[in-house]
Amino acid sequence: ENILIKGGTVVNADRAFKADVVVKGGLIEAVGPGLKAPKGAKVVDATGKYVMPGGIDPHTHLEFPFMGQVSNETFLSGERAALAGGTTFHIDFALQWEGSLKKGLAEWKRKAQRAISDYGFHMAINKWTSETAAEMAEMVREGINSFKFFMAYKGALMVSDELFLDGLLACKKLGALPMVHGENGDAIALAQKLTIEKGITGPEGHSISRPSYLEGEATGRAVKLARLLNVPLYVVHVMSKDAIEAIEEGHRAGQRLWGEAVAGAISLTDEPCWDPDFKIAAAHVISPPLRSREHQTAVKAALAGGSLQLIGTDHCGWNTTQKAVGRHDFRILPNGIHGIEERLHTAWEDLVNAGLITPPDFVRLTSAEAAKIFNLYPQKGVIAAGSDADIIVLDPSVTHKISVATHHSSLDMNVFEGKTVHGKVTTTISRGRLAWDGKDILLEPGSGRYVRMEPFAPHVYGGLDEQEKRWIGERFPYGPAPVKRVGDKPPRDEL
Ligand SMILES: NC(=O)NCCC(=O)O
Ligand SMILES: [Zn+2]
């Protein structure tokens, strides 16, 4: 498909400028003023609109097997929702399967057979076997450059500090990025038991038993363990002031450290978890939990100020019947909320329209930074000649209300129900294909593509070797050489 996008304002992470964009053969062919339409090209009129790189969602769980069920949102329905909301690439979390990473990857490739957009995988590790380090290397050869470790979910996905440390070292050797879910799983398991014993069994018990300081504690621990080994670290779904402070402390210590906010934490609070209607309360259960307005304000300030660097969703879509399993015990209520379709619209409303960030900041937070971290830049995350033609057109003058009645997700609830947003994605182009025309999704099931992500992303690992060669003392306790003391005999090989 050849496409000319005419008359818009192109927004990249560094600047916004008036330009046309020509798309040919799945790539952006040219960006500049007064471009001519190639033969047979569709013309998209972007006058008065923003032309931006498609959204990259670094955190999704489609068809996620978790807490005894499989989340309802599939690759097909989830990507339809994503494209309608302007997200053209997402990274889904494959899980180690029966102890094997290879089996996990095969299982997630099977799930993605009906995909329609570009996607990639992270791999989560929860067991360390004699095969794990070798399998991690094999995953990197397969195009996975990030591994996730859960400090929460005791008895299921939770890892010990020992496993996490092994994982950090293995990641560093491979040039892969470790990711961490920071919540203290042991303490939460006990707090859950005590909450149930008090007679609190509903969704509010989920929030009560997961206080923000347990998120802060685990995030701080993860940050310090990464500091000990000098390994870059990515903290997923930061929900609290406490976790932000732990990340800021790591930044002050000079660590390579990224913090991800999720759409829900920017636009929602935990108040609905106390709603008398179980359906509404249950729909808002996610881990770490949504929090009070004070924490929401801190998350937005951290995105505006630079302590958090990107926005994902943690999209994990459960239907009300699936959530209903936890009606009398929040410990078995499937955790997770959605956002893959809403993320760009809600972030535009609550960050750009609210005057907290500029349109280029928006592109950095929703697309460019993720592309850099996961080593896809400038293939993705920028409107430039030679880049993948993953493009959105956003009309800032269109107002709409988010609703289950109009969303494209397969879910029967919407946690953003009734929210009015100013600005709408009217066109989405996925790898040069017109994917969304403001009314319909135009792509065929199975036309999606797995995208490899190579290790040693310059944005993450660039210069680390040189840094370590030069470090002495506290920040690099293993070198550069032991102190030679008076009276010590030289080692044998020096005699
Ligand atoms: N976040 C959540 O509640 N569900 C998905 C699993 C995870 O990311 O922790
Ligand atoms: Zn997640």
TrEMBL record:
Chain ranges of the Amidohydrolase-related domain: 50-434
InterPro entries xrefs: Amidohydro-rel, Hydantoinase/dihydroPyrase, Metal-dep_hydrolase_composite, Metal_Hydrolase, Metallo-dep_Hydrolases_sf
Pfam families xrefs: Amidohydro_1
GO cellular component: cytosol
MF-aspect GO terms: dihydropyrimidinase activity; metal ion binding
One biological process term in Gene Ontology: pyrimidine nucleobase catabolic process
Provenance organism: [Myrmecia] bisecta
NCBIfam families in the cross-refs: D-hydantoinase
Domain of life (superkingdom): Eukaryota
Cofactor(s) listed in the protein's UniProt record: Zn(2+)
Annotated protein name in UniProt: dihydropyrimidinase
Record's keyword terms, sorted: Hydrolase, Metal-binding, Signal
Modification note: Carbamylation allows a single lysine to coordinate two divalent metal cations.
Modified residues (N6-carboxylysine): 148
Family to which the UniProt record says this protein belongs: Belongs to the metallo-dependent hydrolases superfamily. Hydantoinase/dihydropyrimidinase family.
Lineage: Eukaryota, Viridiplantae, Chlorophyta, core chlorophytes, Trebouxiophyceae
The enzyme's E.C. designation: 3.5.2.2
PANTHER family, per database record: COLLAPSIN RESPONSE MEDIATOR PROTEIN (PTHR11647:SF1), HYDRANTOINASE/DIHYDROPYRIMIDINASE FAMILY MEMBER (PTHR11647)
Catalytic reaction list: 5,6-dihydrouracil + H2O = 3-(carbamoylamino)propanoate + H(+)
